[in-house]
Design brief:
Layout: H1 2-39, H2 44-57, H3 62-67, E1 80-83, E2 93-96, H4 101-113, H5 126-143, H6 148-151
Antiparallel strand pairs: 1-2
């Protein structure tokens, strides 16, 4: 009986420890994404570096990127290029001319996840961006239910 209680206590402590580490990791990702999003508006060089670093973060960054889709600030430069990783790609790179942080983040989300909702990567109307954001938030909440609050949408 003592062994059962001891094992249950060990599992409880391990679960709490894992949750704490996971929470800190999420906070670190959130902070890094926020800093990189800020750099997208500073200079063309900083923007290009931020795009690359956000892409390198991979899908784990998706909920935090979705959380920033309400950002309609203009970019420092209106160009973004990705390696075309699609299985049916007919060219090696994809080039876009996003106007806003929202447009660029949508392109990065598409690159990371393969998902696309409203095509805003070369600029769009406010209504198109709002619709795109709403659809990304819905997708994010379904795909990352543990990060539903992070995904935003309120």
């Amino acid at each position: 009986m003592i062994n059962i209680k001891h094992n249950a206590m060990v599992l409880l402590v391990l679960g709490v420890a894992i949750a704490c580490v996971s929470g800190r990791a999420s906070e670190a990702i959130e902070t890094r994404v926020s800093k990189l999003v800020e750099k997208m508006t500073k200079s063309p060089r900083a923007e290009k570096k931020a795009f690359r670093e956000l892409e390198e973060m991979g899908e784990q960054a998706a909920p935090f990127l979705v959380a920033h889709l309400g950002d309609m600030r203009p970019l420092a430069s209106n160009e973004i290029t990705f390696e075309n990783t699609s299985s049916n790609a007919f060219e090696g790179s994809r080039h876009y001319s996003p106007d806003t942080v929202h447009d660029a983040l949508s392109a990065i989300l598409n690159q990371l996840t393969g998902q696309s909702f409203v095509f805003v990567y070369n600029g769009a109307t406010r209504q198109q961006r709002d619709d795109n954001r709403r659809r990304w938030v819905e997708w994010c909440r379904v795909t990352y239910p543990d990060a539903a609050v992070t995904c935003g949408g309120e």
